[in-house]
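Thanks for the sequence, V.! I ran PBP family phospholipid-binding protein right away. Repeating your input here for the record:
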Amino acid sequence: MTTDFLAPATSVRAQPRLRLRSNEVADGARLRTAQRSAILGGGGLDVSPSLEWSGAPLGTLSYAVTAHDLNGRCYWAVADISGGVTSLVVDAGNGSGERLPSVARQLRNDLGYARYVGPAPAALGLPGRFIFAVHAVDVGRLPLRTHAGPCELTAALDGHEVGRATLTAAYGWSPPS
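Predicted structure:
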């Protein structure tokens, strides 16, 4: 008879905590102009920020990156980033794909673009929150169709996400007088 289930918790190997950082986005700070939307008229440039993560949980074979607002609208989605990659460079989400790591797939966002689109607050200048997330995944390639979007990514991550880290930035602008 084994009594392994009675072993003290200290014998369980501690999992590292997935962490996310960026040179362009500080958690809780205001989103820079370059990361806000030009396409949606937010006075920005639609340049995705650099992202760097560490502390991959055991079993991580790949990563996905998303950017969304508090309403759940997805502005950027990248899947199948190799498990050995721990960063994305500035403007990796430009739509051409040449700045993404090999094998990574940029998916259509909720606006229909296969690229990063920054947020644009309502014309009233109301502030909002924008969340960048890195998802640690326990498979090397998620089961996604060629033209998948954020809903398919969310469904594919279900049961395969082994960790997540986020950065949340504020955005808003005042309309011209």
